[in-house]
Amino acid sequence: AAVFLAVRGIFLEGQTKPVLPDATVEVRVKGAEPVVKDTVTGPDGKYRVGPLSEGPVYEVRMRKNGYQVVE
Q1: CB–CB of 60/25 below 8 Å?
Q2: Disulfide-capable partner of 11 in 50, 57, 68, 71 (CB 3.0 to 4.6 Å)?
Q3: Element (H or E) spanning 13, and its range?
Q4: CA distances from 68 to 4, 23, 24, 36, 65 (A)
């Protein structure tokens, strides 16, 4: 029989200001380049991305053509 291990993940949520629908949201482990997870903002500029492993510190970056995004 197969044995499975389930670990609860975390989700990151946020919103762009001003509202930017269809912006790409990328999550990376802080200091690393590869994207761990990504998503696109909804029509209200909100996003939810995950599940992510607990433990690492994550960076969230956002981009959208025609916009300069500042943190």
Answers
A1: yes
A2: 50
A3: strand 10-15
A4: 44, 11, 13, 22, 8
Q: Residue 47 class from Cβ within 10 Å (0-12 exposed, 13-18 middle, 19+ buried)?
A: buried
Strand partners, 37: 27
Q: What is the pLDDT of residues 20-69, one digit of tens each?
A: 999 999 999 999 999 999 999 999 999 999 999 998 999 999 999 999 98
Q: What is the rounded CA–CA span in Å between residue 70 and residue 49?
A: 20
Distance CA 57, CA 30 (A): 6
State residue 41 phi and psi, 5-degree precision.
Answer: -70, 150
> In one letter, which amino acid is 23?
A
Strands 35-40 and 46-52: unpaired
